[in-house]
Amino acid sequence: MVEKYDVIVVGGGPAGMTAASRIKRLKPSMRVAVFERSGYVSYAPCGLPYYLGGFAESIDWLVHYTVDVFRRRGIDVFTRAEVVEVAQGYARVRVGGEEKAFEWDKLILATGARPRLPPIRGLDLEGVFTLRTLEDGERAKRGVQSARRVAVIGGGYIGLEVAENLKRVGKEVVVFEILPHVMPTLDPDVAVSVEEELTRNGVELHLGEKVVELAGGDKVEKVVTDKGEYRVDAVFVATGVAPETELAKQLGVKLGATGAVQVSKRMETSVENVYAAGDAAEATNLVTGKPDWFPLAPVANKMGYVAGANAAGLSAEFPGAVGTAITKIFNLEVGRTGLTEERARREGFEPVSVKVETVTRPRYYPGGSRIAVKLIADRRSGRLLGGQIVGGEGVLARVNALATLLAKGGTVEDLFFADLAYAPPFAPVWDPLVLAARVMIRELGGAE
Fold first, then answer.
1. pLDDT digits (tens, 9 = 90+) for 300-358
2. How far, in Å, CA of 105 to CA of 88, rounded?
3. pTM score of the predicted model
4. How far apart are CA 248 and CA 222, in angstroms?
5. What is the pLDDT of residues 275-311, one digit of tens each?
6. Which residue segment(s) compose the domain that 175 sits in?
């Protein structure tokens, strides 16, 4: 017998479970099923580096809500269930070793992203790990317990968080990045601060070095690059992610220029009654006004919220995002939002930038630290285009304030006159953001 659902959600990550929960809250009578390939739903893959570092004693600590919570909400959740085929109104799913057929009126593709692996030999050797699912995290933690020297390929957010946490548990860590600097979402003059922090904390850093092979017998033993060979006991591959769109292609759903699923603000795809949300889908970049791809958990949750509302028959829109992100690299907080200087130039703006270095509290109040703020604006209009902030404290609040202004098309003058809070335990009277805006106004030809 073929089971029929009002809505089938493919993917039990942030977007999928938010969408399913939203549907059941708005229309409790609707039959909703979620199919998830892993053994967990509603989990935090961003926490996996910190699990490696011992911050979470159990992998279950990274689960926001268990399957039972969603089942009590009336959602039929199937874990270790792989959707192998979809067509209009139909899905074939491999569950528990057997294949079953399901019918649907509406479908939400929340298939997430998959690791983007480099074209090198040896990725299948024992001791080579990626981090995407909780099972990946469990396997990696077991695999590095006896390792002394660990390589990380990729100097983005996940790669550097893994590097820090492996150092925390006593490993020797060597990072390989093919580009001249780590964290390509930062401008080079900001990325250098991150590199200095890594080196200061004992991470061996190889920039502008291409990995060509992972070598060993059954187990990885060395990393081979275009500049040398390095003995290692384990390797983490953190070279980015790509949208998971295989099921979308089966349905004939249109993909965008980013490679992710093209959607409307209602999360509708080009196929009737099919929605997409989360890392599988595009969203509008509120700075450029163009489609972009934001594989970030807060964005995924909101896209799922909107997809669920529309699948339930309401009308909701997701306006877009500006690409706000933050991480911690040892004692350095690193935040960014909007466009880099290089990206702004490619998008047709006339970018001008300023970078100020100051303190997070008045000099007489204890506990402050250095902070650097880089602002990017359009010379013609004075509109803010992006910003990057690094420092020992206080980065989160400032990057969030800047992100809010960016999303609303704010100008440098708007930032200068922003009514930001002040008290000596938290900030100097001239907040670093306001100080940077003041310098930018001068750079744009305003009054001293």
1. 999 999 999 999 999 999 999 999 999 999 999 999 999 999 999 999 999 999 999 99
2. 9
3. 0.94
4. 38
5. 999 999 999 999 999 999 999 999 999 999 999 999 9
6. 117-239
Kindly state the helix (H) or strand (E) to which residue 320 belongs, with its residue range: none
CA dihedral of 69, 78, 306, 292, whole degrees rounded to 10: 130
Number of domains in the chain: 3
Q: Which residues are catalytic?
A: 46
Q: What is the pLDDT of residue 1?
A: 74
Cα gap 245→184, rounded to integer Å = 24
Listing DSSP states for 100-144 in one string gives EEEEEEEEEE---EEE---S-BTTTSBTEE--SSHHHHHHHHHHH
Model confidence at 446: pLDDT above 80: no
The tokens for 148 are 């002394």
Q: Check if the beta carbon of residue 340 is closer than 8 Å to that of residue 376.
A: yes
122 and 219 share one domain:
yes
Residues 6+ apart with CB under 8 A from 255: 245, 248, 249, 261, 262
Residue 1: name the closest of 106, 90, 102 by CA: 102
Final residue before a domain boundary, out of 257, 289, 311: 311
Q: Is residue 126 part of a domain?
A: yes
CB count in 10 Å sphere of residue 364: 7
Q: Are strands 149-153 and 172-177 parallel, antiparallel or unpaired?
A: parallel
Measure the CA–CA gap between 233 and 24, rounded to whole angstroms: 48
SS3 label, residue 302:
helix
Residue 317 maps to a domain: no
**Beta-strand pair 332-338/325-329:** antiparallel
Nearest Cα to 22, choosing from 10, 9, 35? 9
DSSP 321: B
Burial of residue 76 (number of CB atoms within 10 Å: 0-12, 13-18, 19+): middle
For tokens 């990274």, name the residue: 62
Position 173 scores a pLDDT of 98
| Cβ atoms 183, 194 nearer than 8 A | yes
Residue 345 sits in the same domain as residue 398: yes
